[in-house]
From TrEMBL:
Gene3D superfamilies from the UniProt entry: 3.10.450.310, YycH protein, domain 2 (3.30.310.160)
Transmembrane spans: 12-31
Entry superkingdom: Bacteria
Organism: Macrococcus brunensis
Name of protein: Regulatory protein YycH domain-containing protein
A matching Pfam family: YycH
Length: 439
């Protein structure tokens, strides 16, 4: 019996040793296993981008075109992006103590506010709720559809900062926990680099000092610039926008090239304008543009579409188009053919139309072209106010921008020339001012 028991113990030990060895071998094989990737039927394909992916800050895209500091009639202003972002970041670090709507008669007298205030000016009406939640990062919930075009910061009437988002019919007043003293100290420092501004009254709605148009007093120091143009590769943008890459049909015509896929159509014309239409959204009702601003931003940003400094510039409610415009040195860039614009129309579930210029700025080169110095703001005001051709009360905005011109196609490397001009928003249309005329 003792012998049988001894054999049993030996057999158990052998089995245990075999199991341990097997486990060690299996562990080694698992650790060193390399799949035979060449036998995989479907490769993982990542869509290309036409610029760096997801580096865009939404605050930059929905940035005001200028900040104005009104100090008892001493008016300073700036279009410098870093100063505007610094002030925006200061506000976005605060919290809401209370928020409520105020009726607005269009003039917004705001008698309880003193003679010192700061303004953010935008070129288009922006939804109040969208801006407060997505740009200022404040916890604010509202179903209201009210918009604003000017934001006023009151850091004088109380210990904490008040913000007013001024719309045509309603003003959203936000009382924050941001300290007025801290904001004023920052503002005092930033005013040193701001330039002199002047006010402009064009009609009854701009009669209040809170609602006047504020513009740079002088413009003779604004220079022209020239850049080498980079052309965005059409294949790269097609890879980022079109699905079903293996079934794209390309057809060349005299003045354009068209690409057909199962999901959309792309046309590229000789003026370097790219236009994509989503076939699945062709028959759907187009979304209200102000409801999908964040969606449009994410769509463009997801494939690096903001290839230069772009900002929201206009919204066309008739055709439901959102328009982002190129900026240079903090000033908007205009181009007759649309080279300086990115526009999006949204359908029911996805983008319906995507239109953009294919040129972006590369290396700056010296400009040899003589550019006439711009007239002063007062000179422009006088010429327009005394002209019988225009109604002065139809002027709703005035700023300095650039006209972008592309060099002749015969050149080996295309250049982009940026020439400064006064631009006037007249009867809801942006027009270039030149020698007393609007063009």
């Amino acid at each position: 019996m003792m012998v049988i028991g001894m054999y049993k113990n030996i057999i158990k030990s052998l089995i245990l040793i075999i199991l341990v060895c097997t486990s060690m071998v299996l562990t080694y094989l698992i650790w060193n296993f390399k799949p035979q990737l060449t036998n995989v039927d479907t490769a993982v394909v990542e869509k290309k981008t036409i610029g760096p992916r997801f580096i865009d800050n939404i605050k930059n895209i929905y940035m005001p075109y200028q900040v104005v500091s009104y100090n008892e009639g001493n008016i300073k202003g700036t279009t410098e992006s870093h100063l505007i972002i610094e002030m925006t970041n200061f506000l976005s670090e605060s919290h809401i103590q209370s928020a409520y709507l105020i009726d607005n008669n269009g003039k917004f007298q705001a008698e309880n506010i003193g003679n010192r205030f700061t303004l953010f000016d935008f070129t288009v009406d922006i939804p109040q709720t969208m801006y407060v939640t997505n740009i200022l990062d404040m916890n604010y919930k509202s179903e209201d559809k009210y918009t604003f075009k000017r934001l006023m910061i009151d850091s004088e009437s109380r210990t904490n900062v008040n913000i007013y988002l001024i719309g045509k019919t309603k003003v959203l007043k936000i009382e924050t926990d941001a300290k007025s003293q801290t904001f004023n100290k920052m503002l005092q420092q930033e005013r040193k680099s701001m330039v002199n501004y002047t006010s402009l009254v064009t009609n009854e709605l701009t009669s209040s000092d809170k609602m006047q148009l504020y513009i740079p007093e002088e413009a003779d120091s604004v220079k022209a610039y020239r850049y080498i143009a980079d052309r965005i590769n059409v294949k790269d943008i097609n890879d980022a926008v079109l699905d079903d890459q293996d079934n794209i049909i390309e057809r060349d015509r005299k003045e354009s090239t068209t690409y057909f896929s199962n999901t959309g159509i792309v046309s590229v014309n000789d003026s370097d304008i790219y236009k994509y239409n989503n076939l699945s959204e062709a028959d759907s009702v187009k979304a209200a543009p102000r409801d999908i601003l964040v969606k449009s931003f994410k769509f463009i940003s997801s494939h690096g579409g903001f290839t230069d400094d772009y900002r929201l510039f206009d919204i066309n409610d008739d055709n439901r188009m959102i328009d982002y415009q190129m900026y240079l040195g903090g000033r908007p860039v205009f181009n007759d053919t649309g080279l300086s614009n990115i526009s999006v129309i949204w359908g029911k579930d996805d983008q319906y139309e995507y239109r953009r210029g294919l040129l972006s700025t590369s290396v700056a080169v010296p400009s040899t072209q003589e550019v006439e110095k711009l007239p002063s703001a007062e000179s422009v005001r006088y010429r327009l106010a005394s002209s019988k051709e225009y109604r002065f009360d139809k002027i709703t905005n005035m700023l300095i921008g650039y006209e972008m011109k592309k060099s002749a196609d015969s050149e080996i490397q295309a250049n982009l020339l940026f020439e400064p001009y006064w631009y006037i928003e007249y009867d809801n249309q942006w027009l270039k001012y030149e020698n007393g005329r609007l063009k």
